Amino acid sequence: xxxxxxxxxxxxxVVWVIVTATMAVSAQSPGDAGIGDDFYPGLGNGGYDxxxxxxxxxxSDDLAAITRAKTTLTALATQSLSSFNLxxxxxxxxxxxxxxxxxRIAREGRExxxxxxxxxxxxxxxxxxxxxxxxxxxxxxGDSLDFNNGWFHYGGGVxxxxxxxxxxxxxxxxxxxxxxxxxxxxxxxxxxxxxxxNGVLENVExxxxxxxxxxxxxxxxxxxxxxxxxxxxxxxxxxxxxxxxIRNYFPLAIAEQAAETFARQAEMIATFEPLFGPFPFDxxxxxxADVPLGFALETQTISLFxxxxxxxxxxxxxxxxxxxxxxxxxxxxxxDSLTPATWRDLWLNEGFATYAQALWTEATLGRSAADRMxxxxxxxxxxxxxxxxxxxxxxDPPPDALFNRxxxxxxxWVLHALRLQIGDxxxxxxxxxxxxxxxxSNVTTQDFIDLALEISGDSGVPELLDRWIYGVPVPDVPxxxxxxx
Length: 485
Hints:
This protein is an alpha+beta fold. The chain has a domain at 339-480: Neutral Protease, domain 2 (Orthogonal Bundle). The chain has 11 helices and 22 strands. The protein has an 8-stranded mixed β-sheet, with no helix packed on it. A hairpin with a 6-residue loop joins β1 and β2 (66-77). α8 (405-422) crosses α9 and α9 (424-437) packs across α10. The radius of gyration is 25 Å and the shape is globular.
């Protein structure tokens, strides 16, 4: 080594200080407490991608509490992580481990910051175990729910409905649809209760006065689509002509009426598969909670309904139970397999599923009946009252009113207007290609616009879609003699 002059030494020291400081900053590399959704900045977390969850829950004898639980998640670091966040609200945390070593935590609201003993390098897989217990969600009197979202105990049962952000109320997670993962559920309940969750029932193990149900969801799923339902359910099964198993879970007291209500599901699947492509999952079915609900939810592979579904109305929207059953089924393609990348893109869920209601009507009652349904939708989004209050476009819903009628009804009209423009052949080619190309992943509005142009070859499609998705007021539909305010 040669001699170093004083000037060279000063340069060396300055460079050494800069490099050392840079390394120190790099070593302190916490993941972001938010995944980057501009609608809901606090949802999800940055710095890692969850690959799988295993959620083990022991439910108390009275179903009112989780006496013991453990969630194990396997994730891949997308940056060097000195700490990272999980979404987890309430509940008492008993232990947290990262790669089998105890980790420190700090909690504020729904954020749980986890600091492992060693920084996790970028690109490395790691395993997080969280043990906890407590009373999640909101209890009710058994007749109705004080509904926010998450895990709910009602009288003689439990239901989980988490859209958009309720999953964090019962298990630690990266609670945003952009981070889809595989799931195992191990639910320990008192006999004679039945525990129903997403996917395929892998095992039932009886242990004295307890029964442990193990369910596996083997396709990627967003956290908001997870569900657990506990009651004295009766299982009803059928197999479609294409070999798909439909398994439904109904409360014992209303099982016969519920079976009649859901009798056309196989026919609906047979109607939708030629239009959308093969059913995307291994199984399907529904679970009916023994409590009235003002909503239904497309929880993946096992859609959730309240017991009011047997009276002919499944939600507070006024739509018939049959129409809502078709809606939730269609979500298995649009929302569950293809999941929005941000909550701003929700119309890709609700608009498509609402249009599926019209497609089911068209298949069973004819095109004229479907047109009447679409005219009814149009009148509800273009009335003087709607115009006066400035109904939001489906591609730009207000964050404080995400599930507004425009996302559903005008979202459906986006598709119908496109169908009128490009014709049936190109339209249904587009739907099938959209489902196939983006299967089990996330989608954006721009993905759909780009593909619509690609499949149709119609240069007017982007402008048409832009007016319907983002424009105000509601566009005219001269083909059907419909003109907005």
